[in-house]
Amino acid sequence: MQTSTQTSMQTFGSRLSAAMNQHGPLCVGIDPHAALLRDWGLTDDVDGLREFALRCVEAFGGHAAIVKPQAAFFERFGSPGVAVLEETLAGLRAAGTLSLLDVKRGDIGSTMDAYAAAHLGPAAPTRADAITVSPFLGVDSLEPAFELARATGSGIFVLALTSNAEGAQVQHARQRDGRTVAQTVIDAVADLNDATPADRRVADIGLVVGATTGEDIADLGLGDALEHCRGPLLAPGLGAQGATVEDIARAFGAASAQVLPSASRAVLAAGPDAACLREALRATATHAAAALG
Ligand SMILES: O=c1ccn([C@@H]2O[C@H](COP(=O)(O)O)[C@@H](O)[C@H]2O)c(=O)[nH]1
């Protein structure tokens, strides 16, 4: 039986869809690389990290469909860096902006339960509206995260076809039934999203499909499966990794309306001025909206 909280709770898919309509289909990353800290005139330490991350919150909060802090760049400073991550996520929440924490978690179910609680639990210090997860211990091992996401109106993005060339070693491999590993992940997510109302632009469980994977989508025949999975398709690799929004539109075809291109360095290079960062975000989001329809 549903509780009154569950019935009144908005799903992640509907919140994301509204944000994509309002701000354009773009996910902007907060990736405080050492080189970017230097370019912004900041020190490569936790003070520099905090200044960088809070400047991004100021620039993107209220202006982006969704913001994706990359956990690794915070964790490299240990617990003070994680405290900055908590502050960053809280800042985005206060601005009413969706957050997607890129942590790529994946483990046996009993441990996955704890990872889910750490990032999707209602009172967790590093809670986000959505997280990235790795399915390579089996998509079913991620069930505790799917379950908590359903209970809290959060989202999950499952790695399927990543933007790096090395991903092919695993993701293009074929199983006994002839399907690639990538296709198995996409089909499993389609099953999870099966009950999503037909009028919803995107469902709650998404996939990560790199913006750079256009030829692979075609060669592996994944276009239809991506469209039918109904989930948002996070497409990292825009800009710094060489992909353009036109590449994305060509590669994803009929699934283009579900695509959420993601750019970090390409937008962050406009810093450190918050107005310049916001302008770079707006220009990229406008371009993406025009290309993806
Ligand atoms: O397949 C993947 C999955 C995740 N990422 C992450 O996205 C950003 C990309 O940053 P750019 O500066 O826009 O290249 C980064 O956090 C990656 O870890 C990805 O690139 N590909």
TrEMBL record:
Q: Name one GO molecular function term.
A: orotidine-5'-phosphate decarboxylase activity
Q: In which pathway does it act?
A: Pyrimidine metabolism; UMP biosynthesis via de novo pathway; UMP from orotate: step 2/2
- Please give the SMART domains that the UniProt record associates with this protein: OMPdecase (SM00934)
State the UniProt keywords alphabetically.
Decarboxylase, Lyase, Pyrimidine biosynthesis
Annotated Orotidine 5'-phosphate decarboxylase domain residues: 25-280
EC numbers, comma separated: 4.1.1.23
Stored InterPro entries: Aldolase_TIM, OMPdecase_type-2, OMPdeCOase_dom, RibuloseP-bd_barrel
Task: Tell me the domain of life.
Answer: Bacteria
What does the record give as the active site?
K104
Which reaction does this chain catalyze?
A: orotidine 5'-phosphate + H(+) = UMP + CO2
A Gene Ontology biological process term: 'de novo' pyrimidine nucleobase biosynthetic process
Classification via CDD domains = OMP_decarboxylase_like
Q: A Pfam family for this UniProt protein?
A: OMPdecase
NCBIfam families referenced in this protein's UniProt entry, alphabetically:
pyrF_sub2 (TIGR02127)
The family line of this record is:
Belongs to the OMP decarboxylase family. Type 2 subfamily.
Q: What is this protein's name? A: Orotidine 5'-phosphate decarboxylase
